Amino acid sequence: MERLQTVKLKRLGLHEYLCSLPPAILDSLYEHPATCMAVFRELPELAKYYIMRILFVEQPISKAAVSAWVKVNAKQDHNEAVKSMCSLRVWMESNLQGSASTAFIMSSIFRRNLQKALVGGGEPWSSTAHLGPDKHGKDIDSLDKYASERWEMLLHYLVGSETNSTISQDIKDLINQAGLMKQGSEGGRSYSIITAKGFQFLLLDNASQVWYFVLEYLDWVRERGMNLVPILRFIFELSFSSPGKDLPTDGRDEHVLICLQHFREMGLVMQRKRKSRRFYPTYLAINLANRANASVTNVTNTRGFILAETNFRVYAYTDSELQYSILSLFCKMLYRFPNVCVLQLTRKSIQSAVVNGITADQILHYIKANAHPDMLKSDPIIAPTLADQVRLWAMERDRLTYRDGVLYNQFLAQKDFEVLRNYAKELGALIWENSSKRYMVVTKDGHDQVKRYWKKYKKETDT
Amino acid sequence: MANEEERQLLVVIFDVNPVWWGIKSLQGQAQITKCLDCLLVFVNSYLMLRHDNKLAIIASHSTKSVFLYPAQESNQSPDPSKASTSDQAGGDCRYEHFAKVDDSVTDKFKELMRDGCEKNDIRRDSLIAGSMAIALCYIHRMQIESHGNTKLNARILVIKAADDAASQYMSFMNVIFAAQKERVVVDACILGQDSGLLQQACDMTSGMYLKVPHQDAFLQYLLTAFLTEAELRKESLVLAQSSRPREVDYRAACFCHRSLVDIGFVCSVCLSIFCQFSPICSTCETAFKPPVQASKSRKKRRALPANGT
Predict the structure, then answer these.
(1) Per residue in A121-133, pLDDT tens?
(2) Do B235 and B246 touch, CB atoms closer than 8 A?
(3) In degrees, to the nearest 5, what angle opens at C-alpha B187 toward C-alphas B183 and B191?
(4) Does the predicted interface ipTM exceed a cut of 0.90?
(5) Which residues pair with B274 in a beta bridge?
(6) pLDDT in the model for residue A312
């Protein structure tokens, strides 16, 4: 559970990061239409509507007029929208000429560039026309293949099933820092093993994985002191490019070029050689800034391969080691054939997955995302019995919670017990009591205070 | 707030009736090219809202409806020279996807205007009902294709120029009922005269009906009223409609002359409406006896002399 929250937190991190930038830098970021579009898509719905409504109106609009656009019961949405826009310096407060009332005006840089993105009238974002047609031009299929190969290699490294070292040290550092793997040592040799977070990362769908990874990358880059602004711009430009079209490497910041090499390794872009002057973004990069929660596998690289039946048998029509390792995280492997693997969802297997920090929702989401087309025909996709039972098994571990405490018993008189119990209750330190047997349990922190009180009380009653 | 699991589909039906647009441009009041430009900007803004917003544009002519976007595969192979020019994206600052949409729409539009229809077929009205039926079929197909992944929230926006044609009444009403059943919201933007049929459509599907007084502000009207989806409009926004629910003319049209009637004859088998009596219902061919007016008058005449004298 905490993993999904961290993913969501990171999403907001980008928004807050942008808010924390000084105005001059933010304005220079907005000079590029791609950033404006990316920021526009991040805003709440009502904010988007406001922006579109006054995109072509050059004057400031009074606050009263803007509040008149919404119904009374949507006031909260309105305030939220205004706040998010002002914090991003998309809207600013100003004064209406000739009256004391405050007004809103859209930042002119933002307006200009958003208009440019809509209707044109500026220079092209970047084009390789000057380089001539590409002799080694790649078509979309080979791009997709390259991207999935590289990304799978990354995931293989996470799972530890291949010890090839085609992952550079930088990426390994990044993975360690992201908390997906940790260093362990055995017999004097240090190696990396996957952590609970890493397990959860594996179960996410491709788009979310890439998004999470890129955000971690931005943090890592920030620590190394690289300039974040051109890199952000580069990322936004990538995410709005179209498949199959190449982009030039000329005229880019050196940090961006380093970043380009990293992305090339992750499979987000493809470059024929290190020194090539053009590169192709792949499908992993193209949907980056867009809703990473879009659970659409519209790219038909990964056909679903999992069939989960109501007798808790899972059939996986695949021969990839990676998929087997992921599935064996929460299923028990029964039989293995060249093209099929038969697994079973058992109580033990689910609970061992939960021990590793994976939630039932993540398991179900993974199965749904990779469901075989035959399974997609039934509605709902996963049978309710199956879904409910997985959840129940996962919840079984939550039946008991443990808390440290100190037990007080062997009271000589009922009155003593009651006095102490009331004191502990007032303190808020009482966890459990049993009046008939005169037992009570107090928290560890409260124990000292209760002991002192008891000693004082004893002294008073004895004397 | 829009549910993240839902996707939106907007189908725009653009009325390109040559007679109406020709008259208006001769009078200097409206130009179809300017209108098309405004429409393209509106469509680009819609696509900019969310990454997975889907779009279709249908042009409604006097005798046919043509998909301007997405362009259907034509029989001839794509022109290689044309392909390379679109690759360079015209050296423009637009987001490429928008540029592609714009180019595709303008190309198909030019083709439509060129080939158009025969001289004898040019009429004053456009096949709005037909276009709406095509739109509904397209929506249905999209819903099936995206089944299992996400729900599809569909809207139809009709930009009407020419006047209503009485002959389309039946098909129109059927289309409206189908849209109501499929929970498709129909919005209308009227450039010419008020259209009773579209008023009914918007009212029944809880859409928005707007009459645009002059064409200069067309884009602004589109962006203000029709950009957001129906849910957001209903809950949050205050937008003045051009027709109050009470003002909508819900009178039925008779099946024989297509004229609006308040009182008429209804077939008891198939419920079709006629303004005057006919011995056989034209829809279900049930025979009816003529009304008994003649015998009543005879009775009255016989009674009168008895009372009079």
Answers:
(1) 666 666 555 666 6
(2) no
(3) 160
(4) no
(5) B265
(6) 92
